[in-house]
Amino acid sequence: MSYFQPVALNHASRLLNHGPTVLITSFDAASGRRNVMAAAWSTPVEFVPARIAIVVDKGTWSREIIEQNQAFAICVPTAAIADLTWAVGSVSGRDKDKFERYNIEAKRGPELGLPVIEQGCAAWLECRLLPETEAQQQYDTLFGEVVAAAADTRIFNQGRWQFSAEHPEHHTLHHLGAGSFVTSGPLIQAKPL
C-alpha cells in the first residue's frame, strides 16, 4: 500500500527546505539504464514555479546522464533506509545498475518517467533541468524546475511536515560526513511572544 499522494507544486519547495540528504535519480535514454546517487547539497531556490538547486560533481555518471537527458528526480530518504542511502552514495553506477545491485524498487514518475523511490522515502520531486548558466559551466551546481511532486501523507500532509517521536523511522536524514547522519526531530511549534 502506498501512502504517497501528489503535492501541490506551490508546496514542493517545502519538501527540501529543512535541508535533508536526498537521493538523485536519473535515466539514461541512450542505454535504457537508471541511476541513483546520494547528495547532501540540495535546496529550493524559487517558490512558484518551484525550482531546486542540486550539487552533482561534473566527473560523475549522474551528471552526464542528467545533462544528456535534461532531467532528474529527487527522493527524500528516511532513517529507515540510512544504510541504503550511504551505499548508493559510495559507489558509481557507471558499471552496474545500483537499482539492481541494491534491490531498489522504483516507479516511473508521472511527468518525465524518471525513477522515483517511495519505499523508505518521505517524498519525491521530478525536475526538468533548467538551461545551463555560466555558473553551471564553472561549478557543480545544477538547477531544475519541479514538474511533479508527491509525499507520504503520514509524514508530509497539507503542505506541512508531520515528524513525530512515535515514528523515528519516518524522520529524514541529514548527512554529517563519513556515513554519519542525524535525523530530523519531532516538531517544535513556536508560540507568539
TrEMBL record:
Pfam families to which the protein is assigned, alphabetical: Flavin_Reduct (PF01613)
Gene Ontology molecular function terms on file: FMN binding; oxidoreductase activity, acting on the CH-NH group of donors, NAD or NADP as acceptor
Keyword Lyase: no
Cofactor annotation: FMN
Domain spans labelled Flavin reductase like: 14-158
Key words, A-Z: Flavoprotein
Entry superkingdom: Bacteria
Family recorded in the similarity comment: Belongs to the flavoredoxin family.
Name assigned to this protein: Flavin reductase like domain-containing protein
